[in-house]
């Protein structure tokens, strides 16, 4: 069986060093904008539900279609 590919190995290893699980580290490191410099994003409370849903989809949150805006925010923050 072939080992799953990680798009951003450096970010994956940094997250593992911080204590993140293999699954969470891989999910974050494999997002389309992985490794891009951040700090300019608006607070989740200022996002639309559609934007939150899209982000939840990008990071692989299950059951997102059943969540309201507050639940999506909580899931994104705790993912």
UniProtKB/TrEMBL annotation:
Residues 1-44 are annotated as: Disordered. SUPFAM superfamilies: Rho N-terminal domain-like (SSF68912). Pfam families: DUF7218. InterPro entries: DUF7218, Rho_N_sf. Coiled coil: none annotated. Residues 1-26 have a biased composition (Basic and acidic residues). This is Rho termination factor-like protein. The lineage of its organism: Bacteria, Pseudomonadati, Bacteroidota, Flavobacteriia, Flavobacteriales.
